[in-house]
Amino acid sequence: MSFKGTTDLPWLSIRDKDDEDIPVPYPFITKMGVSDLYIIVLKIDLNVYTQLIRSLLDYLYNKGVDVIHIVRGNIDAKSKSITYILLVNMKNATTNIEALKEDLRKIDGVKKVIVGSERLSDILLFPNAFPIFTFERSIIIPLTMIKAFFNAIAAYFKQPALAASTLYQLGFRIGFSLTEFLSETSGHTGEVLLRDVLDFLKAQGIGSFEYKARNLGTPKGEIIIKMTHGIETAASNLPAPRCHLTRGILSGVSSYILKSYVPMQEIKCVAKGDKYCLFATVRK
Questions:
Q1: Residues 96 and 146 grouped into a single domain
Q2: How far is CA 213 from the centre of its chain?
Q3: CATH code of the domain containing 72
Q4: CA distance 123 to 119
């Protein structure tokens, strides 16, 4: 198997480039109709923050303020306070940002309020924060339940090859549909679209990705994807290489971007003892 012309390229992180006109951490946020984004930094009394943060979220909800992302910051022992950073959308709010800022300052337990909209990239300081998406209904599935899902698939099909094929086909349809949706929403194609999708998959907990890509706008386009912290290496009990659902998702992604059916093969897998999982496009 040869990947001539691609293996000599540097690995690109999905967060390496910041020259687009969209926030780098979660670029799909701006594609979901969000148009009035602000960052609100709240410094809250440490003694009451647990109850207060819940009350604040209820207050924002009642004001029509959409909380897209929330991060708990540092604890200041000297001032006995804790910082929260919120990324909010004011598009459907019943108040404006200045009035909201003044109202928040009047709440007992809120020590300081800072509002800004010009430095959205600052949220890159918190790459491990859990994103809250409110543009559609979502569920959070714990690892125990994901393990039960893979165990059920393996038990039902009995033969590992049948289980692997089913997971691959399921993943392919997910990956293709997701890429199509993000492309139609954003208007992006090629490498920018690839980064959009990988960023989305990382935010959803599938894994952390780096990639190499070459000639994406031609019939000879190639994609190689390196993945760490893959969900299937931790949850599946199928023989290694075992990332069949992920391989299907990435095959759907590559097929949409390359405009023809181009599956991906898992060359390396953490479950086999490799340091990372490696997927590459395969052309017959």
A1: no
A2: 20
A3: 3.30.70.260
A4: 8
pLDDT of residue 138: 60
Same structural domain, 16 and 150: yes
Q: How many CB atoms lie within 10 A of CB 237?
A: 14
For residues 106 and 204, membership in a common domain is answered with no
Report the pLDDT averaged over residues 147-175: 93
CA-only gyration radius of the chain, Å: 22
Beta bridge partners of 12: 211
Q: pTM for the full model? A: 0.61
pLDDT digits (tens, 9 = 90+) for 256-280: 999 999 999 999 999 999 999 999 9
For the chain, first and last CA: distance in Å?
Answer: 11
Q: How far is CA 42 from the centre of its chain?
A: 25
Tell me phi and psi for residue 92, to 5 degrees: -110, 15
CATH number at residue 156: 3.30.1380.20
- Position 263 scores a pLDDT of 93
On whether the CB atoms of residues 282 and 254 are closer than 8 A, the answer is: no
- Domain extent, residue 261, equals 12-20+142-281
3-class SS of residue 211: strand
**Nearest residue to 14 (alpha-carbon basis) of 212, 166, 259, 270:** 212
- Residue of 34 and 241 predicted with greater confidence: 241
CB under 8 Å to 7, separation ≥6 — which residues? 212, 224
Token pair belonging to 224? 């190689």
Model pLDDT for residues 209-239, shown as the tens digit of each residue: 999 999 887 778 999 999 998 999 888 888 8
